[in-house]
Design a protein that fits this description.
It contains nine helices and two strands, in the order H-H-H-H-H-H-H-H-E-E-H. By secondary structure, the protein is mainly α. This is IF rod domain-containing protein.
């Protein structure tokens, strides 16, 4: 059946085109009859169509049929190619199976073959591999101890870093508190400065008021002096007028009676004159005395009032001056205490600023030391990680080689034992694939224990020919199981 299919695939496209024609003619009738029937069915009923409709429909049907034929042709070509590849693969596998049967028959015919040199060679290689594994195990133990020490160092450094970070947080909190205190002191200092400025303004106002009172006192003293001088002058004038009146009175008294008075009958002119004159003089004197008394009383009253006013003003000015002096003294005392407090606050501010700068420098130095320690730790960690990965890779390669050698040795051992029991090669290989020695199990457990995550197994098969390439050669199929720890798990262990 395969030869007929192959012959059909070698005939080309013509055979498939014929077959395709058969597929299109589904009713079993000839192609000409089917086309004629379709034309008769189309013309049945005498349907009136426009000119050119038949040609259009036939053209579209032909194009559709051509497209379908091309598509089916491509599908058949693809199927033919796949079928040819399948036939070629089947022939290759038949040839390979025949070769394997011949080799198996050759192995069965070898009865007295000596496998001791091969066994010794693999045992030597196995001993060397075990020695290398022991050395690597010892070296791995040293690396594990070193890694544990480094891990302890890392933990210690991490604790120191946490302590330094806590100290840094405390320092930052202290710095913030001191900055807040400095802000409060600066606010209080500004308040005291404003109060001092207000007190100085009040002191200036009091000084101006004192100057005004002094000027007013000076003006009142000047007015008092002027009034006193006017009073003295008025007294002098009154004394002069009194003297003048006395002089005139004396003069009138001493005047001679030279002119003969006119004698009027019944009237004494001398007596009349004397009486009238004395009366007039008395009236003038009384009037003058009254006015003088009024003027004196008025001046005395005015002067006494002014003196009382000046005295009361002087007392009030003295009281206000004394009060202003006491207030000025208090303000000076407050100003001195405020200046002293400002000096103390400035000194404390300077000391706090110096301490703040010192703490900042200490924090910066600690941060630099912390960064250097982190960098050194990361460098050591990367170096140890790379060394560990290299050791694991070398251990994996040695494990692969050891497992391969052990499996090959077990395969040869089973092969030798199978010659006595006349077992088939297929059973020997299947038994060898399921065998794993105690050393390989321990080594696989060591490799699996070195990683904290998952593990992956890779199975490789190799075919070796023993005894040359002739008919008596033997083929051994070896399966190698590789146990590989995931790098992510090993890397996560030392983070």
């Amino acid at each position: 059946m395969s030869k007929q299919s192959l012959s059909r695939s070698q005939e080309g496209d013509s055979g498939f085109i014929k077959r395709k024609t058969v597929v299109i003619q589904r009713g079993g009738a000839p192609a000409s009859n089917s086309y004629g029937y379709s034309r008769q069915s189309m013309s049945f009923g005498n349907i009136g169509l426009a000119p050119g409709t038949y040609s259009t429909i036939s053209h579209e049907g032909v194009n559709d049929m051509k497209g379908k034929r091309q598509h089916e042709k491509k599908e058949m070509q693809n199927l033919n190619e796949r079928f040819g590849n399948y036939i070629e693969k089947v022939r290759f596998l038949e040839t390979f199976n025949a070769q394997l049967e011949n080799e198996l028959e050759a192995y069965r015919n070898q009865k007295h073959t000596d496998f001791k040199p091969i066994r010794d060679m693999y045992e030597n290689e196995l001993a060397q591999a075990r020695k290398v594994i022991d050395e690597l195990s010892a070296e791995k133990g040293g690396y594990d101890a070193k890694m544990a020490g480094l891990q302890d160092l890392v933990d210690t450094l991490r604790k120191e870093i946490e302590i330094l970070e806590s100290h840094a947080k405390d320092y930052r909190a202290t710095i913030d508190n001191q900055a807040a205190q400095i802000g409060g002191f600066e606010g209080e200092l500004q308040t005291l400065r404003n109060r001092i400025a207000n007190l100085e303004n009040e002191n200036d106002k009091v000084r101006q008021l004192n100057n005004q009172r002094s000027e007013e006192n000076r003006r009142l003293r000047t007015d008092l002096d002027n009034e006193t001088a006017a009073h003295i002058e008025a007294d002098c004038r009154a004394s002069g007028l009194e003297e003048e009146v006395e002089f005139l009175r004396a003069l009138l008294d001493k005047m001679p009676a030279e002119p003969q008075p006119v004698k009027i009958k019944g009237l004494d002119l001398k007596d009349f004159w004397q009486n009238n004159m004395s009366k007039a003089i008395r009236d003038i004197q009384n009037e003058y005395d009254n006015k003088l008394d009024l003027m004196r009383q008025d001046c005395e009253t005015r002067y006494s009032a002014q003196i009382r006013q000046v005295q009361s003003g002087a007392v009030r000015d003295n009281f206000e001056t004394q009060q202003a002096k006491e207030e000025i003294k208090k303000l000076k005392t407050t100003l001195n205490s405020t200046n002293a407090r400002i000096a103390d606050l400035e000194a404390r501010n300077a000391s706090l600023q110096a301490e703040l700068n010192e703490q900042r420098g200490l924090v910066k130095s600690l941060e630099l030391e912390l960064d250097e320690a982190k960098h050194a730790h990361m460098t050591d960690k990367q170096r140890l990680q790379s060394e560990l990965e290299a050791c694991l890779e070398e251990l994996r390669m040695i494990t692969d080689a050891k497992l391969s050698l052990e499996l090959e040795i077990s395969c040869y051992r089973q092969l030798l034992e199978g010659e006595e029991n006349r077992l088939g090669l297929k059973n020997i290989v299947e038994q060898a694939m399921g065998i794993q020695t105690k050393g390989s199990t321990n080594l696989a457990s060591i490799v699996g224990g070195g990683s904290s995550g998952g593990r992956s197994e890779t199975r490789t098969e190799s075919t070796r020919s023993i005894g040359g390439g002739g008919s008596g050669s033997s083929v051994v199929k070896t399966t190698t199981t590789t146990v590989k720890s995931s790098s992510s798990s090993s890397g996560g262990r030392y983070n």
